[in-house]
Amino acid sequence: MSFIVAIDGTAGSGKGTMANAIANDLGFISIDTGATYRCVALASIRENIPYEDKEGIIKLLDRIEIDIQGDNLNPIFLLNGEDVSKEIRSAEVTKIVSQVSCIPEVRLKLVELQRKLAIGKNVVMDGRDIGTYVFPNADVKIYLDATEEVRAKRRWEENQEKGINMTYEETLENIRMRDKQDKEKEIGALKKADDAIVIDTTDLSIEEVKEKIEKIVKSKYVVK
Ligand code: DC
């Protein structure tokens, strides 16, 4: 038996923070699907395959294995057995990951992995297409959003803490570019599922958003 909470939304809307916190509170596991796309982007950088070389990236997929270990608050992302949790957040990866994630073959492989990781488990999965494509029958669907400026500020502050070198202006520009690309993708485009509950996090604290989502999850989980 498996209970799936899908959290989709724009870059920097708080999906990852929420997925980890809620999974931790409820004893679910949290799966950050963006990190799986980041692993492919990192592998392409390491092998000097530009994202325009779609055939090269498709071939690369056969040479990589991605796994998640650790716990909700400290997930460890493994690329061919190596811990790349820090490297996948680098500015270099952030700049190209959206383009890499547009390649249909990349999406097919990673969606298969994401579905497999959730088998038989209670999961909070965050991404762009979880409620619309990966788990269209998810038990709870949440769509998070906030203004571009607030999202850029949050990402910039997070990056500062992690020692990632990107100015606020670069972060804002990257968020705008990714929003556009994420919404225009051929498969798995970012869009709100018809039955998703929308939460605008612009003026809400982490605690307030968490409370709202947990209330929704608990109301459905008890009934099930
Ligand atoms: O959530 P994030 O910023 O770590 O995601 C990185 C990129 O991966 C993002 O630009 C879009 C893509 N992505 C996607 O296409 N589908 C998902 N389910 C998750 C992320």
Architecture overview:
The protein is α/β, with parallel strands linked by helices and 224 residues long. It has one domain: P-loop containing nucleotide triphosphate hydrolases (Rossmann fold, 3-Layer(aba) Sandwich). It contains nine helices and eight strands. A five-stranded parallel β-sheet has the order 2-6-1-7-8, sandwiched between helices. The protein has a three-stranded antiparallel β-sheet with strand order 3-4-5, covered by helices on one side. The longest helix is centred in the last third of the chain and has 18 residues, at 206-223. Bound molecules: 2'-deoxycytidine-5'-monophosphate (DC). 2'-deoxycytidine-5'-monophosphate (DC) binds at residues 11, 33-34, 37-38, 97-98, 101, 127-129, 178, 182, 188.
Please supply descriptive tags for the structure shown above.
224 residues, alpha/beta, Rossmann fold, 51% helix, binds 2'-deoxycytidine-5'-monophosphate
Q: Helix-strand pattern, N to C? A: EHEHHEEEHHEHEHHEH
Quote the average pLDDT.
94
CATH topology type: Rossmann fold
CATH architectural name: 3-Layer(aba) Sandwich
Under CATH at level 1, the class stands as Alpha Beta
Bound molecules: 2'-deoxycytidine-5'-monophosphate
How is the main sheet built? 5 strands, parallel
Summarize the amount of helix as a percent range. Answer: 40-55%
- Give the number of DSSP strands: 8
Main sheet strand line-up: 2-6-1-7-8
